[in-house]
Structure to design on (317 residues):
């Protein structure tokens, strides 16, 4: 059996101490951690917190503003992929995309054994858009989306699209012109209608995945040969939840078996922002999730450190 290297790709923008704790739990022989810190965030506290830990930082010249929902989230992922693929190793490789608010449900050695046993499987949620009941196809793929650090975003249709003539669209234009700049709004009025490229069937799912090197190489080669696909997604909403999924679905014949994402999240807890932030009282849910998943999100150490302490003692010891 070939040796297995795991390359953890982490997108982070907050809580340096929590990120350091996550990285320490991922440490294992033949594992490497690559970290992208949002360009709009001071990187210095993160470097200080992770002093002494072996990590690969995305260089400042390659950092991007990874605003939620924007193309920047994908650009940050791509920067991680570019750096990680340049590190040569012997044997097989898995690339695992995580956020700084994730935490493992199993020990690093157990994760490595699982991925080694299932080498070649694609742990990524690939769904047809019609199966995603909470996705608005036209908003994501046919309008021009503008995203802001406040978490808000506005979608605009050009005048050549009949949906331009609606109160909601006019209101969104007013917001973009006020928050962004008037020129961006005026240019969008006269842009071409957006339509998803016919060459690829759009797919979507969880942003978080674990993919073997053969699949990663195929995705990178496709995107290098077809830059029009990323250019199209410049104005999509949450393209990081569609780009690798659509390309992997398109290339499926040359990749492995598709399995569900290995990152667990609770999208059904009532009366809280979703996905739910795990806290004390969620121990049984997390223990049960560990049967079918390797990671969970999300956590806030400053809000509840005890749940992480419990995981360390009961799940990771």
């Amino acid at each position: 059996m070939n040796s297995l290297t795991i390359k953890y790709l982490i997108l982070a923008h907050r809580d340096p101490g929590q990120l350091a704790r996550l990285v320490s739990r991922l440490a294992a022989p033949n594992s490497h951690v690559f970290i992208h810190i949002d360009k709009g965030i001071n990187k210095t506290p993160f470097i200080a917190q992770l002093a002494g830990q072996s990590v690969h930082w995305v260089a400042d010249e390659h950092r991007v503003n990874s605003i939620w929902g924007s193309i920047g989230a994908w650009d940050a992922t791509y920067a991680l992929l570019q750096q990680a693929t340049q590190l040569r190793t012997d044997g097989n490789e898995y690339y695992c995309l995580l956020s700084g608010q994730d935490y493992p449900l199993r020990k690093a050695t157990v994760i490595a054994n699982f991925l080694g046993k299932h080498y070649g499987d694609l742990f990524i949620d690939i769904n047809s858009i019609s199966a995603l009941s909470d996705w608005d196809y036209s908003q994501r793929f046919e309008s021009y989306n503008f995203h802001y650090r406040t978490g808000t975003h506005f979608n605009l249709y050009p005048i050549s699209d009949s949906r331009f003539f609606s109160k909601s669209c006019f209101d969104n234009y007013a917001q973009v012109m006020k928050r962004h700049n008037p020129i961006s709004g005026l240019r969008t009025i006269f842009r071409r209608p957006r339509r998803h490229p016919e060459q690829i069937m759009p797919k979507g799912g969880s942003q978080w995945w674990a993919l073997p090197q053969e699949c990663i190489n195929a995705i990178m080669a496709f995107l290098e040969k077809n830059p029009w696909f990323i250019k199209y997604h410049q104005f999509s909403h949450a393209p990081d939840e569609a780009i690798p999924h659509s390309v992997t679905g398109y290339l499926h014949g040359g990749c492995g078996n598709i399995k569900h994402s290995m990152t667990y999240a609770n999208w059904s807890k009532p009366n809280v922002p979703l996905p739910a932030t795990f806290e004390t009282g969620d121990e049984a849910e997390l223990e049960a999730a560990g049967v079918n998943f390797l990671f969970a999100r999300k956590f806030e150490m400053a809000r509840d450190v005890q749940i992480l302490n419990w995981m360390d003692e009961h799940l990771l010891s």
Remarks:
- The mean pLDDT is 95.
